[in-house]
Write a structure and sequence with these properties.
- The protein is built from 26 helices and 16 strands.
- By secondary structure, it is an alpha+beta fold.
- It folds into five domains: about 90 residues, DNA Primase, Chain A, CATH 3.90.580.10; about 130 residues, DNA primase, catalytic core, N-terminal domain (DNA primase DNAg catalytic core, N-terminal domain); about 120 residues, Dna Topoisomerase Vi A Subunit, Chain: A, domain 2; about 70 residues; about 140 residues, DNAb Helicase, Chain A, CATH 1.10.860.10.
- The strands form four sheets. It has a five-stranded antiparallel beta sheet with strand order 1-2-3-4-5. A five-stranded mixed beta sheet has the order 13-12-14-15-16, with helices on both faces.
- The relative contact order is 0.06.
- It binds zinc ion (ZN).
- The site of zinc ion has 8 residues, from loops.
């Protein structure tokens, strides 16, 4: 680990887990703990528990858990140093410079962030410049995007018409040509000439979830093509996992009761919705939605509303894209705007109320697909009918709720005028085909890798470990009773060793559950430990009783193992005809047996 334990402890102790987590999801007090619907799996009744005394969280539904760092790492998909940095910033602790495994790689990424930040500033200043930004401002004014709050909030900018203004600006700031080319914002042609990628375009910075500029979208001022270009993918920008304005939308959704996200295609559509009462809007970056997108959105919202332009819905709608929501178990509605409107025009012309009205009228994804397919194919000719049914059955296979599938099947049968029974048997055939495919894939997988037997952690050891963490003096009692005991469970063993090391260096009063979690190397161990830490005893007597029981169970287990070993040694000695050893083992065996029985 790059940071020493002291600084990690300090950052942890200054951040309260309840405060940190409630910035993301609403927590309700329940006795000494707090409860919430788990953000890591779908549920109706809360099984996600945050314990302020121990500064840990654990979900009894899906089993995730850990400390404040684990939460941030899971929720924000950060690595440990990132989570540490974020929490340190939150409480104004300055971290010593971290020693990374690859300082070169680290500094390259850091330089990319710096280049993008400096470029965003430069473009933004151009737009605001009285002379240079005139035409761009006129364009934005024409489309009513010129309010200073809007321009500032989205840091809208302008790339000048000349070939090398950004290049020169960044060079003056000390960036090397090589790193500028690596950023993708500067291009080198076959003749070796370098120039700016974006020229004469309105610039929209794309931020990651930490609020850092990682890419740009650039729009032409007129009707030339391509209308939009994006900066290329880079070590800091992957299209398939980024969405425009998610940084702002995530905060809006966390602060709102309604966990709903609106999805549009264009930057300007997105900005218009944000500034007209829909800050929960994101835009795709000229790609169709990916599984990663939906997985990320699911953390912030329960329902997605996909907006399509009125006249283009049929061709524009990627019907397959909508299936991703169903596969991921996220509820989705489709909203088709009236003919001639895109989201921007509509909100601009009709206002927030009209938009809200449309959202409530949003079409179920099934109805939408059916409608599009009925426009595309003729249901009264047999080929058309086949196309429609096979497309929709393909969707049904992905829907996890059987109730929903049932309802859709009935409606489809009525609309197409076919027997519900025959649709159902088609669906079953399709399901069987797919599941046999899955089985085959699983078989292939298991053949290619060595079979992993699932390691069971013995219950008595788990309980004992939980007791020792709750009440550190038990460690000494335990070590006196079982010197050199080796835990059978892999995880219990590792946690026990970490805890012992800690106990050697600190006095009992300073040992805390959260400190222990910090010392654990893997998230898997942290999750396992957080589960142990959630065990509670009603009184000290109760706890003492549990400890004595656990000790007894462990002693019994140890005896059984010793007996088994002796039995093996006896039969070996018999086979070898080694009378001396045989006698020795027999005696030991009888003694051990006597001990067990006399207890
Ligand atoms: Zn969960």
């Amino acid at each position: 680990m790059a940071y020493n334990d002291q600084i990690v402890d300090q950052v942890q102790s200054l951040n309260d887990i309840v405060e940190v987590i409630s910035a993301y999801i609403p927590l309700k007090r329940a006795g000494r703990s707090f409860k919430a619907n788990c953000p890591f799996h779908q549920e109706k009744t809360p099984s996600f528990i945050v314990n302020p005394e121990k500064q840990i969280f654990h979900c009894f539904g899906c089993g995730v858990g850990g400390d404040i760092f684990s939460f941030l790492m899971k929720y924000e998909q950060m690595n440990f140093p990132e989570a540490l940095r974020r929490l340190a910033e939150r409480v104004h602790v300055t971290l010593p410079e971290a020693k990374q495994s690859s300082p070169r790689e680290r500094s390259q990424t850091e330089r990319l962030y710096q280049i993008y930040a400096a470029s965003a500033e430069f473009y933004h200043a151009n737009l605001k410049h009285s002379e240079l930004g005139k035409i761009a401002r006129a364009y934005l004014a024409k489309r009513a995007f010129d309010a200073p709050e809007t321009v500032n909030q989205f840091c809208i900018g302008f790339a000048l018409t000349e070939w090398r203004t950004l290049y020169e600006h960044l060079s003056k700031k000390g960036f090397q040509e090589q790193e500028l080319i690596r950023s993708g914002l500067i291009v080198r042609n076959a003749q070796g000439k370098t120039y700016d990628l974006f020229r004469n375009r309105i610039m929209f910075p794309i931020l990651n979830r930490q609020g850092k500029v990682i890419a740009f979208g650039g729009r032409v001022l007129g009707d030339e093509l391509p209308k939009y270009i994006n900066s290329p993918e880079s070590p800091i920008f992957r299209k398939r996992s980024e969405l425009y304005s998610l940084y702002l939308a995530a905060r809006a959704m966390a602060a709102s009761e309604i966990r709903r996200v609106l999805i549009v295609e264009g930057y300007l559509d997105c900005i218009r919705l944000h500034t007209n009462g829909f800050p929960n809007t994101v835009a795709t970056l000229g790609t169709s939605l990916t599984q990663e997108h939906v997985q990320i959105l699911k953390r912030y919202a329960d329902e997605a509303i996909v907006l399509f332009d009125g006249d283009k819905a049929g061709e524009q709608a990627s019907l397959r894209g909508l299936d991703i929501f169903l596969e991921e178990g996220m509820s989705v509605k489709v909203l088709c705007l009236p003919k001639g409107f895109d989201p921007d025009d509509f909100v601009h012309a009709k206002g927030m109320e009209a938009m809200n009205h449309l959202i409530h009228e949003g079409q179920d994804v099934f109805d939408f697909k059916l409608q599009v397919l009925l426009q595309r194919y003729n249901k009264s000719d047999s080929l058309g009918l086949l196309k429609i049914t096979s497309e929709l059955l393909d969707t049904f296979v992905r829907i996890k709720s059987p109730v929903l599938v049932d309802r859709y099947l009935k409606r489809l049968a009525v609309t197409l005028g076919v027997e519900e029974g025959s649709l159902r048997s088609e669906l079953n055939k399709l399901k069987n085909k797919q599941s046999s495919l899955h089985v085959r894939q699983a078989e292939l997988k298991s053949k290619s890798s060595t079979p992993q037997t699932k390691k069971v952690e013995p219950a008595a050891e788990k309980l004992l470990l939980a007791l020792m963490i709750h009440c550190p003096p038990y460690i000494r009692t335990f070590l006196e009773l079982f010197p050199g005991y080796s835990f059978l469970g892999e995880k219990t063993r590792e946690i026990f060793y970490s805890f012992c090391r800690m106990a050697q260096n600190e006095d009992d009063t300073k040992l805390s559950a959260s400190k222990l979690l910090n010392r654990l190397k893997s998230e898997e161990l942290k999750t396992f430990a957080s589960e142990l830490l959630m065990i509670e005893w009603t009184s000290n007597d109760d706890r003492e009783q549990a400890f004595q029981d656990a000790i007894r169970t462990l002693k019994k287990q140890e005896h059984e193992i010793q007996l088994r070993t002796l039995r093996q040694q006896i039969s070996k000695a018999e086979e070898a005809g080694d009378q001396e050893s045989l006698l020795k083992y027999m005696k030991a065996y009888q003694e051990l047996l006597g001990q067990v029985e006399s207890r």
